[in-house]
Amino acid sequence: MAENKIYGAIAAFKSDTEILEAARKVRLAGYSKFDCHTPFPVHHLDQAMGMKRSKLPYFIICCTIAGFTLGLLLQWWTGAVDYKLVIGGKPLFALEFATPILFEASVLLTAFGAVFGMLGLFNGLPMFYHPIFNAEISKRITDDRFLVSIEAKDPQFDATKTTEFLQSLPGAEEVQLIEA
Amino acid sequence: MQAVANEFKIPKENPLAKPPLIEGEQSFSTLTEAVSVVVEDKTPRNWYIAFAISVLGTMMLGGMLGYLVFTGVGVWGNNQPVGWAWDITNFVFWIGIGHAGTLISAILFLFRQKWRTSINRAAEAMTLFAVACAAIYPGFHVGRIWLAYWLFPLPYNQGMWPNFRSPLEWDVFAVSTYGTVSLLFWYVGLIPDLATLRDRATTKMRQMIYGIFSLGWRGSNRHWQHYEVAYLILAGISTPLVLSVHSIVSFDFAVSKLPGWHTTIFPPYFVAGAVFSGFAMVMTLMLVARWALNLQHLITMYHLEVMNKIMLVTGSIVGYAYSMEFFMAWYSGNMYEKFTFFNRAFGPYAWAYWTMFTCNVVSPQCFWSKKLRTSIPFMFFISIVINIGMWFERFVIIATSLHRDFIPSSWGYFRPSPVDILTFAGTFGLFMTLFLLFIRFVPVIALAEVKAVLAHQQHKAHGHAKH
């Protein structure tokens, strides 16, 4: 296997407590380009991996404001500018009757922002190929295995040393190099 | 002295401890197995039988709607003075059913009620299918279905825009937003579980289809981080959304000036009723599903009992609302209001009113008894009774308020036409068809979430052992 074809090294663990410990040790060993793969979100794994808080909420609040603005412009422009029609003696535009749709429009765009922002912008999905899938054990990520992967791009990465390091983690199984 | 001390000894077992949410000796892989096997096993014969019946119902629905489109809305029993009848009753009924799904998935998530994980997936699916059934009615009761796009603010050649002053237009936005957000919420929850099915797939076909829908999910913790934030925010916005939807549905009535409709209690009263009927429907479906799919260890008696308690609470709120309506009718001093309510309880529709009252107010009170609350045949029976009662509630509100117009010469009495009845029966066919497809192709339990609960349960067990 040529060096440049390697994506990284992985190790599998059997429980969420083991992966927490492993993630902490990988971070303390100085690795930065590494990831954990788990069947469910493991509590405190973000801290163990030294991850920063997600910036997704900032994106979502922008979508909420956009939804509110669009809802406002839609109701005001269609009712009071483009198609003026007095119905039941009510004003052409008023915040009172605009409120329900302002709320619904804000919620709709918030949801779009949350889902498509999370999937597409922040997580880069859909991504149907990823090197981690080359390892047979990756099929069990969605079942009962917890994986650590250290990328070859990491400045500290060294095929033998990193593999040995992963091997030394308590509970590590199936330590292997995976192709890109 | 010794005797007294003994009497006041703290019992070894904590009486406040909750029963485990997942029963039996379970590991992550046994959970995966239990949930995936439902989708992967050979389709049982009973599924085909149920599916065939449901599809027949759906076809009947299609036939009735086709007949309506070709003939006109006159095929329904609606006529002056009862211009809204079964169509809007069924619309509100189905939308209400959906609310339990969102309540379970969003509100209980925010309250960190971990028991929701066993039932939220199926309840959310139920929401989607109920909204699909509900959406049929406003669409078709406009009469000229091919012009239903007028409901939406679309720029087209007539240069007209919808009337945003009308609660009916608010309803268009509320229901379509609700349907869309519920679908997204459901799908986001599904992604990791679809990935499980992808990874377990034995055929190329399954691998491809589940692979496409799971978007290449690889359980990365850098993804989980954003995923959890998005899920929390979706839950956060779905909570006011679900309250707004039935509030806005109630505005369809409350904003009008009709005695019997023009009341301020409507929004909370409708929301409570919606949750009440939705839980009853979840209960009916879950009791059948846990038995048919062997999921008793995941949907435990504890889950069922908690749901019965919610029905007891919401049923009592509904009962309070019924009484308060009568009090306000009397207290308002408005003769039309007084007449409407007197007529509702003792007029020509008294049979419907008292059916509603017995089913919705009296029957859930049985759940004060622990014995009845934990009896499966009994709760199954009551869940159906409640759904009948909640259908009657909407019918009573709509038909009794309309059938006595201000001028006695315009008084009337609504009778459903056979098309009305068959269309409504057909929506159950559609609902069941979608639900059966759901349990056949999609994991019915939120697997990733249940595993997190199991991990939590294991840590707690370890913690206790240490002390």
Would you kindly provide a written description of the structure presented here, covering whatever features stand out?
The complex is a heterodimer of chains A (180) and B (467). Chain A has 180 residues and is α+β, with helices and mostly antiparallel strands. Chain A has 2 domains: 3-52 and 132-179, Alpha-Beta Plaits; 56-122, no CATH class. Chain A is built from 5 helices and 4 strands. Chain A has helices spanning 16-28, 45-49, 56-82, 95-122, 159-168, and strands at 6-13, 34-37, 146-151, 173-179. Chain A has a 4-stranded antiparallel sheet with strand order 2-3-1-4, with helices on one face. In chain A, α3 (56-82) runs antiparallel to α4. The termini of chain A are close together. Chain B is mainly alpha-helical and 467 residues long. Chain B has a single domain (48-146, 160-462), classed as Formate dehydrogenase/DMSO reductase fold, CATH 1.20.1630.10. In chain B, 71% of the residues lie in helices and 0% in strands. Chain B is built from 16 helices and no strands. Chain B has helices spanning 2-7, 28-40, 45-71, 86-110, 120-141, 167-200, 204-213, 221-254, 266-292, 301-332, 335-346, 350-362, 370-373, 376-403, 418-441, 447-466. Chain B is globular. The mean pLDDT of chain B is 90. The chains are: A alpha+beta (180), B mainly alpha (467). At the A-B interface, α1, β2, α2, α3 and α4 of A face α2, α6, α8 and α16 of B.
